[in-house]
Amino acid sequence: QVQLVESGGGLVQAGGSLRLSCAASGRTSDSLYMGWFRQAPGKEREFVAAISWSDGTTYNADSVKGRFAISRDNTKNTVYLQMNSLKPEDTAVYYCAARWGSRPIWDYWGQGTQVTVSS
Fold first, then answer.
1. What does the alpha-carbon distance between residue 97 and residue 109 come to, in Å, rounded to a whole number?
2. What is the pLDDT of the chain when averaged over all its residues?
3. Coil, strand or helix at 89
4. pLDDT for residue 28
5. 71 near 83, Cβ under 8 Å?
6. Each residue of 90-106: pLDDT tens digit?
7. CA 108 to each of CA 48, 63, 66: distance values in angstroms, whole numbers, following the listed order
8. Which of 16, 41, 87, 108 is buried deepest, with most CB atoms within 10 A?
9. Over the range 14-46, which residues count as b (16 or more CB within 10 Å of their CB) and which as e?
């Protein structure tokens, strides 16, 4: 069992920045992968970024490459999503997720945090 608690969402103007945080607790280990997803009204949930606890390898969706950066602080069991140069199309509910390296299934999810980017 892994518990995820997100924070950092809010309202920001286009071109601004936000940093989302996701604190993990429970059965965490180096085999865990952490990720961020987002879902806008009327659209399917999409992958944003992911990171491996073990070696810090990152994966980024093309839609956010060069603007968003995922990172982790193992001492705090926390993963971050730094979002820069935000656009109105980035508006969505952002979810933190976790999965085991042995399974391509995101088994654990946070409650979601709303990010709204105004023009």
1. 4
2. 95
3. helix
4. 75
5. no
6. 999 999 999 998 888 99
7. 16, 24, 27
8. 108
9. eeeebebbbbbeeeeeeebbbbbbbeeeeeeee
> What is the chain's length?
119
Ramachandran area for residue 56 (φ above 0: left; ψ -120 to 50: alpha; else beta): left
Q: Are 22 and 48 in contact (CB under 8 A)?
A: no
Q: What is the DSSP string of 62-82?
A: TTTTTTEEEEEETTTTEEEEE
% of the chain with per-residue pLDDT over 90 = 87
CA dihedral 87, 23, 77, 70 (to 10 degrees): -10
CB 33 within 8 A of CB 50: yes
